[in-house]
Amino acid sequence: MAAGGGGGVVKHILLARFKEDVTPERLDQLIRGYDRLVGVVPPMKAFHWGTDVSIENMHQGFTHVFESTFESTEGIKEYIEHPAHVEFANEFLPVLEKALIIDYKPTSVN
């Protein structure tokens, strides 16, 4: 059963594989910049991140996950077009070897 419509909480997941030459210091700056978007882009309600800790070794080279919470799919559109996000994306995207982005509405099994 597919969740439809624009209203309701939406999670924005970005899986990242960074280029080999990205230093830990640069990565820290980028993560802090990503986190700052929460206070600047109104529909962005929360941000969490982490690194792969799986023992299954199925990460396909993706090392980091970034999860943002939005109030709606319209909120994600507003985020993508927001000047602060555009400026951040222009810094963030060039250091990525590869990325995978999925937006979804959390659904419980009834």
UniProtKB/TrEMBL annotation:
<dbReference type="InterPro" id="IPR011008">
    <property type="entry name" value="Dimeric_a/b-barrel"/>
</dbReference>
<comment type="subunit">
    <text>Homodimer.</text>
</comment>
<protein>
    <recommendedName>
        <fullName>Stress-response A/B barrel domain-containing protein</fullName>
    </recommendedName>
</protein>
<dbReference type="Pfam" id="PF07876">
    <property type="entry name" value="Dabb"/>
</dbReference>
<dbReference type="InterPro" id="IPR044662">
    <property type="entry name" value="HS1/DABB1-like"/>
</dbReference>
<dbReference type="InterPro" id="IPR013097">
    <property type="entry name" value="Dabb"/>
</dbReference>
<feature type="domain" description="Stress-response A/B barrel">
    <location>
        <begin position="10"/>
        <end position="104"/>
    </location>
</feature>
<dbReference type="GO" id="GO:0009865">
    <property type="term" value="P:pollen tube adhesion"/>
</dbReference>
